């Protein structure tokens, strides 16, 4: 893995100023997968976040035969997938694919361009059980042959003749919806996907695919219809801004009693999280494409109850920073994590910093106290959002907090330390061999 990355945070400074919200991680990853469906032209994606998951996705795209360029200063990716087609390259190798969950979003391109796929591993945040059965069952209902090589832990897919079909999801899976739409886009006939996800990133991916020539209707309604087309063409698209990045920075401003302008953030993308933060005492004002966030440092945060659920419910990715924020509130907050059973690993780390959090299965009670400050400590990020939540805790803790592994933060937050430093925080990113 090479470099060990750590975030070192010294608490006590309110965040003030302007921050730029990155492009959405959970939109760019499916779009890189979608760009590989284009048999002609060069795709140009703009507002790309400079994050490790994007780097891994581009390595994977090159591995299967695409030509890619990542112009980081311009936050622009150029992808030429016109020469994809060598079945020998229809493999997602574990050493790249197991490092990010979005690797599963390459399967439709492999099925359509190479007629087969071998998946040797799919990664992502370590959040407890994260199955991919909806994806594989959906591909099978479109006519693919999906088999498991249990000994090697591989999934093999053969897709010589796909045809449209009626699909459903047991829960409205975010990447499941995107993957089945991408698979259906080049599949002859009509495909209907019931109980589809409503996340804004799903709608952005639909807009991108539509521009490429796909025929998709019903985005945002829960029932999506896709009429298969013969080919898709490369286009240019600007990725929507990242609502989780915006939510994390808003909560950091709230935690420190600060006042920030978040360029590119949209209140309506926050769903229920907006209302929960307002109930805690956070003030929002949307001024065009800039979201102004402030919290009166003299009034303590109020405790909150939150249950995670798919959009527009409270996003599970924002539950970790909310837990850290709730440690500062005046009283008991109640959190129910209904999507990922592994997210509460954060509680032990916050308790090391002096928080009082009790966990019972998928429920947690946070005994908040505005008068007992958190203490800096060496803490472990178990996943991307735990990492961001611990940086948040460090911003309000007495003394120094060191968060490792910083690679997990870098998976999903672009230039995190420098953006926070620009808001006045004392945060540095260190990497050592
Ligand atoms: C790259 C990306 O977009 N990641 C996001 C996406 O992950 P991802 O798309 O993987 O999350 P899903 O919406 O699929 O997962 C929702 C729930 O369904 C379960 N499930 C999902 C698929 C499946 O085949 N079988 C199954 O049982 C999962 O274990 C989980 O409990 O949505 C999550 C939920 O908003 C976010 O936390 C992730 O940041
Ligand atoms: C769970 C997350 O990401 P992934 O699905 O890529 O693991 C996340 O963004 O918090």
Automatic annotation (TrEMBL):
Say if the entry is tagged with keyword Transmembrane: no
Which reactions appear under catalytic activity for this entry? phosphoenolpyruvate + UDP-N-acetyl-alpha-D-glucosamine = UDP-N-acetyl-3-O-(1-carboxyvinyl)-alpha-D-glucosamine + phosphate
Residue positions binding phosphoenolpyruvate: 25-26
Locations listed in the record: Cytoplasm
Q: Which residues form the Enolpyruvate transferase domain?
A: 9-419
Annotated catalytic residues: 125
Does the keyword section mention Cytoplasm? yes
Write out the entry's keywords from A to Z. Answer: Cell cycle, Cell division, Cell shape, Cell wall biogenesis/degradation, Cytoplasm, Peptidoglycan synthesis, Pyruvate, Transferase
Q: What is its EC number?
A: 2.5.1.7
| Pathway the protein acts in | Cell wall biogenesis; peptidoglycan biosynthesis
One Gene Ontology term of the molecular function aspect? UDP-N-acetylglucosamine 1-carboxyvinyltransferase activity
Q: What does this protein do?
A: Cell wall formation. Adds enolpyruvyl to UDP-N-acetylglucosamine.
The entry's protein name is UDP-N-acetylglucosamine 1-carboxyvinyltransferase
Q: Which gene encodes it?
A: murA
């Amino acid at each position: 893995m090479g470099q060990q990355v750590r975030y070192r945070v010294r608490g006590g400074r309110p965040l003030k100023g302007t921050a730029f919200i990155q492009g959405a991680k959970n939109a760019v990853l499916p779009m890189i997968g979608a760009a590989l469906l284009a048999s002609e032209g060069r795709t140009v994606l703009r507002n790309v976040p400079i994050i490790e998951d994007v780097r891994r996705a581009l390595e994977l795209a090159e591995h299967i035969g695409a030509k890619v360029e990542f112009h980081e200063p311009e936050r622009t990716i150029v992808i030429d997938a016109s020469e994809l087609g060598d079945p020998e390259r229809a493999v997602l190798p574990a050493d790249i694919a197991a490092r990010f969950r979005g690797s599963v979003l390459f399967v439709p391109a492999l099925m359509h361009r190479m007629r087969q796929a071998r998946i040797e591993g799919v990664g992502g945040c370590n959040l407890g059980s994260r199955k991919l059965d909806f994806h594989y069952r959906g591909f099978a209902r479109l006519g693919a042959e999906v088999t498991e090589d249990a000994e090697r832990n591989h999934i093999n897919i053969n897709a010589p003749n796909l045809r449209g079909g009626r699909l459903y999801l047991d829960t409205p899976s975010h990447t499941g919806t995107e993957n089945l739409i991408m698979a259906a886009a080049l599949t002859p006939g009509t495909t209907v996907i019931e109980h589809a996800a409503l996340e804004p990133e799903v709608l952005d991916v639909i807009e991108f695919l539509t521009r490429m020539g796909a025929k998709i209707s019903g985005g945002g309604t829960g029932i999506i219809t896709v009429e298969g087309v013969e080919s898709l063409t490369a286009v240019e698209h600007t990725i929507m801004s990242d609502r989780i990045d915006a939510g994390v920075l808003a909560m950091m401003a709230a935690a420190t009693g600060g006042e920030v302008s978040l360029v590119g953030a949209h209140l309506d993308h926050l769903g229920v999280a907006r209302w929960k933060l307002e109930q805690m005492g956070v003030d929002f004002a949307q001024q065009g494409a800039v979201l102004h966030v402030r919290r009166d440092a003299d009034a303590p945060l109020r405790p909150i109850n939150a249950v995670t659920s798919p959009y527009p419910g409270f996003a599970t990715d924002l539950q970790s920073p909310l837990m850290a924020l709730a440690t500062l509130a005046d009283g008991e907050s109640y959190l129910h994590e209904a999507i990922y059973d592994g997210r509460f690993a954060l509680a032990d780390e916050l308790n090391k910093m002096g928080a009082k959090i009790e966990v019972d299965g998928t429920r947690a009670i946070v005994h908040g106290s505005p008068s007992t400050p958190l203490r800096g400590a060496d803490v472990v990020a178990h996943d991307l959002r735990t990492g961001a939540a611990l940086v948040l805790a460090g911003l309000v803790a007495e003394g120094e907090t060191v968060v490792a592994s910083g690679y997990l933060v870098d998976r999903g937050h672009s230039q995190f330390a420098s953006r926070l430093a620009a808001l006045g925080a004392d945060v540095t990113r260190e990497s050592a061999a």
